[in-house]
Amino acid sequence: MMNSFGIAHTNMPNPRLVRGFVVLCLVIFTLCSPVASANPDPELAALLKKTVNQASSFEDKYDAEVWLVDMSQRLSRFVKDPKERLTMLRQVHRLATAHDLQPSLVLAVMEVESHFDRFAVSRVGAQGVMQVMPFWKNEIGRPEDNLTDIETNITYGVTILKHYLDREKGRWPEALARYNGSYGSYRYSTKVMDAWQKRWK
Description:
Number of domains: 2
Oligomer: single chain
CATH topology of the largest domain: Lysozyme
Distance between the termini: 40 Å
């Protein structure tokens, strides 16, 4: 069907325009919401732009913007600093994707393990956002690595998690139990899957 200008008419909106509009709304909501500040923070806006441009694990910039802004809102209950949130999310997405893991599931693991506290230490000595045991540093010949560094910790964590997932042939409950050192029990696995379903999926 043609309109008066001879252009084909369709009732279906352009998907790219729709995504662009959604991104714009999300960015405005995030930067202007009372949770952040009364006025848009130009420094944060610049950081978001930089983060999106550096997010090479995304297929396009719109996907990066939508995911980062959406997940930043969800993560705000755990990490108050918006700059820290965006940096953490970009690293999670990049490192999880590189290991063929869903970033949302890695976020669920981080929530259950440490509530995103980079300085968390368990009663058995596991450290950081993904609660990595320090002995791994010596095992791979990198004793100088700092497990309180978020990127380092996530790199170790996703590598270990992917190893156990492959070992269990894609069975998440078993892989998560091995990651937690509680193989034979599904209590930890259930916690992670619940967090994933409720907050990150």
